[in-house]
Amino acid sequence: MICGSSGTGKTTLAEHMAELYELPYITTSASQVWERFGFKSHAGALAACLNDPDLGLQYQMAVLRNRDQLLIQEERYVTDRSFVDNAAYITLQLGHTLTQEHHEELLLGCRKGMEGIDGLIFLRWNKNIVLEDNGHRIMNRLYHEMVDNIMAWVIRSKIISCETLVLDMWDFETRIAKLDGWVKNL
Fold first, then answer.
1. What is the DSSP letter of 31?
2. I need a surface site. Which of 101, 146, 174, 178 has the fewest CB within 10 A?
3. What is the Rg, in whole angstroms, of the alpha carbon atoms belonging to the chain?
């Protein structure tokens, strides 16, 4: 599984890994459930969820279930999202409205999703990232740095526990070189 803020190259890396290691590539983007909620962009989803925490909880649970259902179909795969994403966005969008007990319960669901995962690749946000405006992405660099820090907290606090490779460089060839050595040791 790969995690990282929007624009860090998750999909590009996942597609490359799928080809390189002959694994099925499964995308589990939150955008796959947007239509159910009437969302057209990440910014629209975020605004709606912050304005209506009940909707936010329904949305985050739909993303979690969708991700789980897609990934359970394959024994081995590479995916451009992870349950770290779920834990980070649950914390970001709903953390202020949840009791600590409910928040921990939701994070436990994310942890369960990571069970049996061979490895997690965390693509860190950095100043070299070029945000491409795809019409769905939030174009605020500070926002993505904040998401990155929440993902780092999720990983550091052991909410998610599996082998983790942190890639903080932007250069694709350097990423691949570090990745290849790491994968061989899994």
1. G
2. 101
3. 16
Domain extent at residue 72: 2-184
pLDDT per residue as tens, the chain (186 positions): 999 999 999 999 999 999 999 999 999 999 999 999 999 998 999 999 989 999 999 999 999 999 999 999 899 999 999 999 999 999 998 898 999 998 998 898 899 999 989 999 999 999 889 888 988 889 999 999 999 999 999 999 877 778 999 999 989 999 999 999 999 888
Q: Give the number of domains in the chain.
A: 1
Question: Three-class SS of residue 86?
Answer: helix
Q: Put the strands of the sheet holding 163-167 in their side by side order.
A: 2-4, 119-123, 163-167
- Residue 44 corresponds to which amino acid? G
* Number of C-beta neighbours around residue 142 at 10 A: 7
The answer to whether 80 and 14 are in contact (CB under 8 A) is yes
**Nearest by Cα to 80 from 35, 111, 122:** 122
**Any idea what the Cα angle at residue 82 is, between residues 80 and 86, rounded to 5°?**
130
| CATH (domain of 23) | 3.40.50.300
